[in-house]
């Protein structure tokens, strides 16, 4: 590879980051409120929910899969966690059980896809509907309120550590762990390999089914974790929580340069993708742009990211 | 032969971003001639063809068709002059019928109505096939359900239907069975009689010597020469291709027999194979011959745990193995180099290093965390041991030549230090020089005690390097020959089910 190609390759990797920096500088000029610490933390807290789901989605998409059920799974997991909290058990135990429920619901996705040999799109489209229905059944269509006054649970969505919102810290810690997993562990390599070519992976001794079940379970758990941030902030679990969240999560992954074909992509990109979506929302709000226009801008950015990505891969 | 050649290329040069891939190359082909174009991977064969067919533009030199200079800027223009290419990857749409495939993009309609005149198309389709002497294909067959050989016939017939005068065949026999190869040769003969010129690109020397009139050799983008096939022999052509003496085609085997290390008893899978029992000794190469579809690859995939067996036992070093997944086989020390490199052997979009690491996660990691040092050391060591030619460990596998890709696949399996290595068609799509290197690696491995099973459709290869030869016929072992008693005829007879 010549140095020119190398440089270009590096730039295409940096593409989303450069885009983000340009947007941030632009918004800094356009609005005085943008570069205040309050606004930055506010922005980061807003994206933490989407980022956590999108981190899981990155793993799923790296295996050439997709998970449409994350939003419904978030709602079901949150409702069940809220149910546990109102039942009066120890809040920390409720949180742990909630995460386990998320893991289990994700594992159901994984099992349908691997053992049932159903295409991920179809399988999670079905569970998306089923999980939402189950949430409505469980909550009777009403929000679950009256959660415990546990300080620990309030902390998840509303707390601060050294002035930094807790959800932001949660997001960064999860990011670092998953970054390490993808880069440095055998499991991470297997995720890439399965997405690159499942047949080759299996013939190389990788238990592809197991890898996939883990990946969907991880995504389920992260979705419920994201749901807890929402539940904690609102001090209630909404049956309609997480609607359309799958789209923002997929958008963050795609803007971050991960290929929907699987096998290629980075979780750093997903973090940047989530930031870009957050900055668009936040910045356009500050500039008093109507939310109708915001959607057009967001769609345009997704399209632009994919088009640039395709060009750099030629 | 005619005085003016049908197509003539003179002094062709071409470079891509400063990299000269063709230097002053000459090539000419007469009407009704079958002309082989040979050279190692990267010698410039495909670039030359792409210039002839208007995909690339030449930097220098002249292309003449029927004596008139042409400047194609698009493949369509070459097609209009009667030049067609049958690619290795066929342009067949599997869900459509033979007729629909043949008239793809040039349907016959009733006037300008857009209503398809299916009756006329079927009639012409049949006529086109008949012209090739092919009677076994029905115009209404679904193309995807036909064998690769028949699909190829459809493409050739399609080329003829557009009045092709020159057909380029790129590795046409790579995926064909022996019987299909015979029918292809008959088709080539009938093309010759119809004065159609054929450029035949192949790694298989036996075929070239059988059906070609002349042979042009390229090496590293340079024109080495054109010879009449009747004037040269195999060794002379190989010397022209690689530029040096290769020595014998196969390494000297000095296998004197050892203990049995691997044993299969009564292996069976319904409808595919039955009652397969054989053994491999320490340091032995067991060749596996048979017609395509006899079940050879399926047996190997089952031994390796990729597909489930119905019953049967597998022993390695006296211990019975329970293999339910390839990972079990790998743990026991079995490596499997699959037949189809691109779809089953390599992550083509991944780097050489990633591919080598794939099977060796255990040895380069500690509690699931990969050690970068250990990984780099292993990759460097294996690339060096197999003399993989690449810009570095981070080069993408798909950018490598066939021979180097195969070396990467072998490298990833040598890392597990296998006791038994199964190679399915190890030299397919690999050029002469790299072939010899692969034989040498196999030879070296057996010296250190590794047992090898080699499935191959190339009889000279099976005869050249195996210590024993197992012949499979319709899912059963037809015979197992000792190297000394085997010959081409005996193997073919056994493979075809004869006594």
Describe the structure.
The complex is a heterodimer of chains A (314) and B (499). With 314 residues, chain A is mostly helical. Helices cover 76% and strands 1% of the residues of chain A. Chain A has 13 helices and 2 strands. Chain A has a two-stranded antiparallel sheet. In chain A, a hairpin with a 2-residue loop joins β1 (160-161) and β2 (164-165). In chain A, α1 runs parallel beside α12, α2 crosses α8 and α8 (186-196) crosses α10 (208-234). The two termini of chain A are 14 Å apart. By secondary structure, chain B is of the alpha/beta class. Helices cover 34% and strands 25% of the residues of chain B. Chain B has 18 helices and 22 strands. In chain B, strands 6-7-8-3-9-10 form a 6-stranded mixed sheet, sandwiched between helices. In chain B, strands 16-19-20-13-21-22 form a 6-stranded mixed sheet, with helices on both faces. The longest helix of chain B has 16 residues, at 178-193. Classes of the chains: A mainly alpha (314), B alpha/beta (499). At the A-B interface, α8 and α9 of A face α10, α11, α12 and β18 of B.
Amino- and carboxy-terminal Cα gap of chain A: 14 Å
Compute the separation of the termini of chain B in Å. 45 Å
Helix-strand makeup class of chain A: mainly alpha
Principal-axis shape of chain A equals: globular
Q: How much is the average pLDDT of chain A? A: 89
Structural class of chain B: alpha/beta
Instruction: Give the C-alpha Rg of chain A.
Output: 20 Å
Counted by DSSP, the helix tally of chain A is: 13
List the helices and strands of chain A in order: HHHHHHEEHHHHHHH
State mean pLDDT of chain B (0 to 100 scale).
88
Sheet with the most strands: spatial strand order of chain B: 6-7-8-3-9-10
- Order of strands, widest sheet of chain A: 1-2
- The outline of chain B comes out as globular
Major protein interface: A-B, 23 and 31 residues
What kind of oligomer do you see?
A: heterodimer
Relative helix content of chain B: 25-40%
Low-confidence stretches of chain A: none
Largest sheet of chain A: 2 strands, antiparallel
């Amino acid at each position: 590879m010549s140095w020119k190609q190398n440089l270009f390759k590096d730039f295409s990797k940096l593409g989303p980051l450069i885009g983000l920096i340009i947007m941030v500088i632009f918004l800094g000029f356009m609005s005085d409120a943008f570069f205040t610490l309050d606004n930055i933390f506010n922005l980061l807290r807003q994206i933490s929910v989407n980022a956590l789901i999108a981190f899981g989605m990155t793993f799923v998409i790296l295996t050439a899969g997709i998970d449409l059920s994350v939003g419904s799974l978030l709602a079901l997991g949150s409702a069940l966690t809220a149910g546990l909290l109102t039942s009066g058990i120890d809040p920390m135990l409720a949180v742990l059980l909630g995460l386990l429920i998320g893991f289990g619901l994700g594992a159901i996705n994984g099992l349908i896809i691997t053992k049932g040999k159903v295409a991920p799109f179809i399988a999670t489209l079905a569970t998306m509907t089923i999980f939402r229905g189950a949430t409505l059944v469980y909550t009777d269509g009403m929000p679950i309120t009256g959660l415990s006054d546990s300080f620990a649970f309030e902390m998840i969505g509303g707390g601060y550590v050294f002035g930094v919102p807790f959800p932001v810290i949660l997001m960064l810690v999860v990011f670092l762990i998953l970054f390490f997993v993808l880069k440095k562990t055998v499991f991470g390599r297997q995720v890439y390999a399965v997405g690159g070519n499942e047949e080759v992976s299996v013939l190389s001794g990788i238990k592809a089914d197991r890898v996939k079940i883990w990946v969907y379970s991880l995504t389920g758990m992260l979705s419920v974790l994201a749901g807890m941030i929402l539940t904690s902030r609102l001090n209630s679990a909404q049956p309609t929580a997480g609607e359309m969240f799958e789209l923002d999560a997929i958008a963050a992954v795609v803007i971050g340069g991960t290929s929907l074909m699987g096998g290629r992509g980075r979780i750093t990109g997903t973090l940047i993708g989530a930031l870009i979506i957050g900055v668009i929302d936040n910045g356009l709000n500050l500039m008093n742009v109507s939310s109708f226009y915001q959607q057009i801008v967001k769609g345009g950015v997704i399209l632009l990211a994919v088009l640039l990505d395709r060009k750099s891969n030629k | 032969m005619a005085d003016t050649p049908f197509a003539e290329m003179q002094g062709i040069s071409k470079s891509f971003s400063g990299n000269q891939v063709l230097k002053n190359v000459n090539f000419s082909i007469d009407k009704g001639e079958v002309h082989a174009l040979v050279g190692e991977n990267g010698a410039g064969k495909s670039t030359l063809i792409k210039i002839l067919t208007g995909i690339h533009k030449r930097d220098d030199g002249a292309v003449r068709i029927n004596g008139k200079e042409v400047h194609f800027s698009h493949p369509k223009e070459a097609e209009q002059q009667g030049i067609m290419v049958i690619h290795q990857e066929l342009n067949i749409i599997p869900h459509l019928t033979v007729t629909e495939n043949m008239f793809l993009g040039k349907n016959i309609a009733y006037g300008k109505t857009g209503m398809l005149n299916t009756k006329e198309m079927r009639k012409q389709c049949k006529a086109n096939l008949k012209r090739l002497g092919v009677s076994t294909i029905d115009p209404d067959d679904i193309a995807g359900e036909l064998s690769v050989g028949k699909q190829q016939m459809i493409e050739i017939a399609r080329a003829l239907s557009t009045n092709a005068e020159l057909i380029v065949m790129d590795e046409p026999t790579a995926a064909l069975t022996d019987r299909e190869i015979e029918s292809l040769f008959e088709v080539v003969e009938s093309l010759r009689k119809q004065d159609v010129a054929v450029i035949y690109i192949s790694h298989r020397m036996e075929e070239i010597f059988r059906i070609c009139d002349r042979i042009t050799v390229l090496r590293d983008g340079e024109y080495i020469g054109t010879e009449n096939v009747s004037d040269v022999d195999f060794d002379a052509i190989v010397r022209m291709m690689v530029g040096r003496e290769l020595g014998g085609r196969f390494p000297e085997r000095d296998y004197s027999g050892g203990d049995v290390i691997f044993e299969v008893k009564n292996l069976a899978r319904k409808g595919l194979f039955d009652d397969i029992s054989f053994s491999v000794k320490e340091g032995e190469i067991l060749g596996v011959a048979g017609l395509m579809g006899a079940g050879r690859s399926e047996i190997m995939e089952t031994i390796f745990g990729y597909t489930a067996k119905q019953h049967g036992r597998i022993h390695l070093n006296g211990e019975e193995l329970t293999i339910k997944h390839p990972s079990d086989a790998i743990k026991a020390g079995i490596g499997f180099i699959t037949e189809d490199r691109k779809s089953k052997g390599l992550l083509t979009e991944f780097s050489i290093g990633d591919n080598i690491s794939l099977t060796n996660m255990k040895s380069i990691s500690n509690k699931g965390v990969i050690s970068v040092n250990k990984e780099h050391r292993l990759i460097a060591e294996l690339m060096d041991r197999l003399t993989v030619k690449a810009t570095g460990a981070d080069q993408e596998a798909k950018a490598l030549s066939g021979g180097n890709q195969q070396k990467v696949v072998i490298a990833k399996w040598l890392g597990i230090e296998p006791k038994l290595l199964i190679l399915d068609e190890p030299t397919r799509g690999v050029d002469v020089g790299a072939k010899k290197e692969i034989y040498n690696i196999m030879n070296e491995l057996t010296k250190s005690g590794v047992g090898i099973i080699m499935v191959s459709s190339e009889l000279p290869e099976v005869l050249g390097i195996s210590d024993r030869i197992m012949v499979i016929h319709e899912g059963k072992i037809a015979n197992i020959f000792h190297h000394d008693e085997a010959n081409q005829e005996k193997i073919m007879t056994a493979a075809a089910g004869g006594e």
